[in-house]
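User: Can you write out an input/output pair for a complex, sequences first and structure second?

Assistant: Here is one pair. Inputs:
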Amino acid sequence: MEKKKHIHIISHTHWDREWYLPYEKHHVLLVKLVDQLLETLDRDEHFRSFHLDGQTIILDDYLQVRPEMREKLQKYIKDGRIQIGPWYILQDEFLTSSEANIRNLQYGMKDALQWGGISKVGYFPDSFGNMGQAPQILKQAGIEAAVFGRGVKPTGFNNMVSDVDMYESPYSEMFWRSPDGSAVLGVLFANWYCNGIEIPADKEEAAVYWEQKIAALEKYASTNHYLMMNGCDHQPIQTNLSKAIQTAEQLYPDIQFVHSNFNDYLAELMTTLPKDLKYIDGELRSQQTDGWGTLVNTASARIYLKQMNQRGQVLLEKVAEPLATFAYMTGEEYPHHLFTYAWKTLMQNHPHDSICGCSVDEVHREMETRFEKSKHVAEMIVDEKLTQISDKIDTTGFAPFGAEAVPFTVFNTTGWERTGVVSVTVDVKSEYFSEGVNKEALKSFPLNDRELVDQDGNVIPFTMEDLGIAFDYDLPNDRFRQPYMARRVQLSFEAHAVPALGYKTYAFVKKETTLPETESLIVNDREAENEFLHVKIEENGSLTVTDKTMNRIFTDLLIYEDSGDIGNEYMYKQPDGEEPLTTKNSKAKVHILKDSPFEAALEIIHEWELPRGANELLAQEQKEVIPFMNRKAQRVEETVPFKIKTVLTIEKNSKGITVSTTFNNQAKDHRLRALFPTNVETSVHYADSIFEIAKRNHVPADEWTNPSNCQHQQAFVSVCNQSEGLTIANLGLNEYEVLQDGRNTIALTLLRAVGELGDWGYFPTPEAQCLGEHTVTFRIYPHTGDCIETNAYQDAYQFQIPWVAKQTGIHEGTLPTIHSFIEWNAEHLSLSSVKIAEGSGDIMVRWFNAANQEDQLTIHSGGREQCYRSNVIEENVEMLPLNENGNWQVPVQPYEIITVGLERKEYHQ
Ligand SMILES: [Zn+2]
């Protein structure tokens, strides 16, 4: 007889690899847990399956200590009794880049398939909110469902599907839809992922347990298939589960109990879905809540980690991978093995408790080492690829300048042509130890008879810093190391119109001409300007910026604000009744740092004082585990010096102002922000997120009671309307707020200093006070109109990516002195990634459409024969026809993530 109710029990453990304990302490427990799992599977054939938390890295962690268990693990995975994947790690979706989210899925799926099985569910049990493009990413990877624990608030069962609130669903089941229209079945862990924890085997206990549990399940479920998650954070295996299930079967003969897994549960669930399931759209950020439990301020916990992560991600995905692809196109090998290692090492820092900065100090110390390790591998790849490409460039055009000409190449790895100031280190003369070094001759080597020329021989204005004599060495592939001494200089100049995904060649040569008198961007010691902008530094150090193209003045930009923070690594809490301090009434010193024809830099000094920290009540409240919302601590009167050095840089042909702020933090329990009043009339703003520029309301929902409404961002936040806007871009500063102060002020968090982890107990974290010196970098970019329609986001995306350059010699070569390796164009697409697919050897290029309108992607064939539409897991979806102009054209839907494969055969046989 078919039973009416089905309870699917999925055994699992949610494994935070590091959190309230350092990695190795959780690791020891993990080894115990997996031992216990394997024993249970050996002993009890009725213990049908176990869900290994959706992250394949746990297998590596276990085998590190128990390599002899590989075969046994493999067998149980192949038999479906251990369910693994699809992720490599359980990431924080908002604090890792678009590409990092994709690579996490790519590497996780690859590992899972190699092991012999994959749990096909977008598994986000503990994510602190969910990215809006997740359904599209999952769909492209062939995954039709997602489960998550946060972001949506069910209203409780009332037999009615409410259409009132965007992010509400009356059921735990719903359709979750990306802005492009892709939807997956979404299941909210309405009673959390512990709702089936520790099921009693004893009949009396079980009767009480099940009565309560079944009522809770029925409250939210839309079908008679109920999900019981048998496990919790670091939960040991319930070794008597099959006995507990027998007890349940005896108590409820009309209910079918299944020891299940996600693949089976979802397949059954999908056949019984009611017609009135609701669609929920885009980002799931718990906006329909009181705002105290969103964990959003992890975006500003330990900002130094976010900065390291931004640099590590960009170096891998936006510099090393494109350069390795270009080199591959010239016949060089693509180091898949090194990229896998560097990415996996970086992604070990991406679990939600790691990158969120909400663990104990030991965890975050180890993260710094991992960031370094990943970066060092990427730097080795970058250097090798720069050399391989530069060696193939025909630089003989510089030969007429004589033997002392020093050619070098400037690379633009961004998706758009680029103009900007570049600093390049050049050795004007080198002497190898093996051939004898004359240090005095190097020291007196003449530098002032030189000039800078581009590939056409045009003389380029530059500034030079003499770095003196420097020791360095080559590490040849076929010989012992070659140390040398060099006379080294650093040249700065404006690289103009360097092709997208390409390079331009310059040379430092003997002077033949005299440059006309130099221009300057400095107006006076408090003002600078270029064709597009005028900036004035006011008495208090704030900026008055005039956008000359629209004749619009922005005032009071860059006032610093500091408030107390008696919260924890997860959440910000300002002391009751406190007024934030600001630099509004301060006096700032200003002086000129740089004044060249292509660049001006001004330094602003604020000598500020901040309260030393919170009073003793905070320590007491922390020890007594008083919830942070209920704390009464205040900041002390006593102050410590807080000197802020702000450097503004304005380039000749740039529409933005780059700001670099340095301070030595000796104050505790506080938050520092920079304020940018926009005075732009609008009720919504845009925040860069994962493959989307998310539109968000300034004002939260009625339920929201937290006075703070901070949000996540990636590269930028923009307040704009159809005629004007202000975009604030950043490097690794993931938190902003748009203030309801009548001026639509963007507040950018620069530092958050707290002393405890928070969550379920008292875990002191003195290093989360972030004492010491910090430098934060951001960019002020005024513009006309909407940030998407006017492509204002392009400046913010290019700002993320460093220029790279390589000195070379005068030699013949197959590559021209100026070149683009992959030429493309479209209206509103942003390039996300250029790499080689490991399986096929094809070039994979990915973009996303930020706009709500169809776009046309044109890719120049460059003599290539085959091109196909791919997906996020690099499969060939459909071949694309070549048009009569020798181009491929691909229609791209609004908000679509588009990956294209260019066939390999031209480069490698
Ligand atoms: Zn977790």
